[in-house]
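User: For my dataset I need records formatted as: sequence, then C-alpha cells, nothing else. Please produce one.
Assistant:
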Amino acid sequence: MQVVQSFIEKHQLLQANQTVVVAVSGGPDSLALLHYLNQLKATMNLRIVAVSVDHGLRGETSLEDLRYVEKLSAEWEVEFVGTTVDVHSYKEQTGGGTQEAARALRYHFFEQVMNQVEGDVLALGHHGDDQAETMMMQMVRSVRPESVRGMPVSRPFSLGKLIRPFLCLEKEELLRYCALHKITYKLDETNQHTDYTRNAFRKYVMPFFKEQNPKLNKHLQLMSERVRDNQQYLESQAEQVLETMEMSYKNEPFVKFSIRCFLTHPLALQRTTFHLILNYLYGYQKEEVSYMHEEVFFKLLHEDKPNAELNLPNGLKVIRSYDEVRLTFSKLNQPGAFTKTLYIGDTIELPDGSIVTAEWTTDDRELDLFEYICDSYHVKLPLIVRTRRPGDRISPRGMDGSKKVKDIFIDQKVPTDRREDWPLVTDSDGHILWLVGLKKGGDCVNGKSDTRLRLQYKNIRDT
C-alpha cells in the first residue's frame, strides 16, 4: 500500500496526532480503509473512531452489518459509534429520492460524530472505480466541463476535512488487500440492482471503457485533480470580477454590473463569474440552471436591443437596461405616476424618497444638473412636480424648437424601468421647465430681474 502512503503525502491528507473518523459500512472498501488506518495508529499517534449507519433499507440484514462493524471494531481495538436512521420518513418529508435521503441522513450523522469526538478528519473508502463512474455519469448529465470534476480528494467538513485516501486504488486491489489480511466483509445485494444509475454504469458502461484503456481510473483521477486546480484558479479570478460589481446582501439580494466592463474579460472567466453570481443569489448552484439558460444569458448581453429581460428558475430575473444588467428576484419597486404641487419656500418628498425644494434667490449660478434657476417672471406659479405623460415635450436651453421627453430618455440611455417615475417640473400652465438631472428648459436666466427662482433636487438615499 505504498501507493496509498504516497497519495496521502502528496495531498497532505493526514497529520500526526489527529482524530480520524472512518465511515464504515461493512463492505470491503470501508473495512480495508479502517484496517489500513488502524495500522497507522501507532506510528502517527492517531485516534481512530469507526462510525457506521444503518439506513433501515434492508431490514435485519442492514442492522446485522452495523453490528458486525461494531464487533470488528472491538476486535481491532477501535472506538465505535453507530446509529439507525429512518430513510423512508425523511424521503417523504423532503420529497427526494431514496439515495439522496440516505446520503443526507448519513452525512448529518457523520457531522454529529465529528463534533462529538472533535474529529480532525472524516475518511471515506471511495476508490478509483468509484471516481471513474462518478466522472462518467457527470459527463453524461452535463455539458459544462467544470461539472465533470469527480469527487474531491479532500474538502472542508464539520470541524476539519473529509478525505478519500483510496482514490488512487482500484476495487480489485482492495479485494486483494482484504484477502491478504483475512478481512471478512459484507456485501450489499442492492449494489447489483441496475435500477440505480451508478450500478448500471458499473455493470454496462465501465467494463467497455476499461477494455479500451486499462489505466482509465488513473487517468480520470489525474483529470479530476487538474480540472479542480484549473477551476479553483478561475474562481479566484472570478471573485475579483465580482468585487467590481454592485451586490446587495439585504432582504432582496441582487447583482448589478456593466456589460461593457464584463465583456472585457475572457469568455471562460465570464462563464465562471456568471455561475458564481448564481451561487450568490441562489445560495447554491441550481441544477435547473442549464447550459441553455447560460446561452440565453450571453445572447442577452450581445444583442442590439437596449432593453431586455430573461427569466431564470425560481423567479430570478435578468434585466438589461442599456449597459446595465441587474439579476434580482423581483423587479425594482416602482412608485408609479405621481403629481405634487410645489410652492415657493416648500420642500416636497417624492415616492422614492427624493426631495425637491423651491426658493427665491438673487444668485444665478447653477451648480449642476440637479439645480435649476430661472427668472421669476418666466413661470406661472405654483409649480407642479410630476411623472411624464404621453406626448410630453420640452424646449431645451440653447436649442430651437422642442423635443419629446421620450426621446431624451432614449438619448440619455435611461433604463426603461426608471422612466415611469422620473420627475419633471412644470409651471401651472403645463410648460415643462426641467427634466430633473437630464435637461433644463428655456433661456430663463437672461432677464434683468434681481429675483430668481431656484429648484434643487436631492435623493436622500445617496446622502
